[in-house]
Amino acid sequence: MAELKTFRSARSQETADIAVARRVLETECEGLAALARSVDFSFAEAVEVMSRAHGRGRVIVTGMGKSGHVGRKIAATLASTGTPAQFVHPAEASHGDLGMITARDAVLAISNSGETPELSDIIAYTKRHAIPLVAMTASGESALAAAADVLIRLPDTDEACPLNLAPTTSTTMMVALGDAVAVALLERVGFSQEDFKLRHPGGQLGKRLIKVERLMHKGDRIPLARPDIVMSEALLIMTSHSFGCIGLVDGDDRLVGVVTDGDLRRNMGERLLKMPAAEVMTPGPRTIPPDALADQALRVMNENSITSLFVVTDDRPVGILHIHDCLRAGVD
Q: Which residues, 6+ apart, have CB-to-CB distance to 299 below 8 Å?
């Protein structure tokens, strides 16, 4: 009986926890919806101010407490998407780190109340050196809002905390607004996949952005022959190259077909070794360009149940890629 009561008590607590989770998420979703409705030309002005720092300086992000944690995330997102950025802690700024901020920069200061005292020295520094100041705050009447060149105002919404005190909805809106700024700047400068790769060489993102040309086999490693080669000779080339296939090229060195292990099985018989490869080949094979992403090549191979892809430029083979090349590189 005691075990049953304990079980019911635990289930009751789990139900209450789930209700809390849903209430918090719904409250924060409402905050994000209000934020989306509140976005106006001041957002565009803020993006313009920060874009002018691009190429000549950085976006300096600052904030205290939870706003500071959000600021670090925003600075990291900006830097990884093409906008040079740096987080400067406002308390440390008052003890020498103001020297990190130059006249070529723009400052994004984050404070929900807009009255964070630790920001006062940075604010004064921007005024003294004519450094553009963008404020992200919920209070349009605050000291930060009054000092800012551009104000991005957060809507007045309830925190998800039942006491309406702990920064929850407000910090979620700050993170989302920072993402919006980063993406707007990204699109302004035409940030590309290649740019993204240069900033993310490690981890799974870097692996997914590896290009085919870095992994493909070239030169004598490519199994190639003319379509009139007899299958006995074609098999020797297939075996020596270990890709399970051979590419057939015409007089202009254009790929016209491939012979794979599957083609061998379909044509198995007494005549096979004496047949010209052209009679056995699969015409119009799947190919990939060298500048395609390895992630894309792996997807093509998986979708077509094949293990190798010829890499072509103007229909001429310049390499061959095996599925194991992708897997060894960590592309999955």
A: none
Alpha-carbon distance values, 91 to 67, 88, 178 (Å): 13, 9, 22
What integer is the mean pLDDT of 221-247? 93
Domain boundaries, the chain: 21-191, 212-328
Say which residue the tokens 């103007």 belong to. 314
Q: How far apart are CA 275 and CA 229, in angstroms?
A: 8
Fold of 21-191: Rossmann fold (3.40.50)
- Domain over 212-328 is classified CATH 3.40.120.10: no
- d(Cα 214, Cα 291) in Å, to the nearest integer? 9
In this structure, the number of other CB atoms found within 10 A of the CB of residue 250 comes to: 13
Rounded to two decimals, the pTM is: 0.66
> Mean per-residue pLDDT for 198-214?
70
Per-residue burial over 271-283, b if 16 or more Cβ lie within 10 Å, else e, is ebeeeebeebbbe
- Tell me phi and psi for residue 63, to 5 degrees: 180, 160
Instruction: Give the pLDDT confidence of 268-297 residue by residue, as tens digits.
Output: 888 889 999 999 999 999 999 999 988 889
pLDDT of 176 > 70? The answer is yes
Neighbours of 66 (CB within 10 A): 16
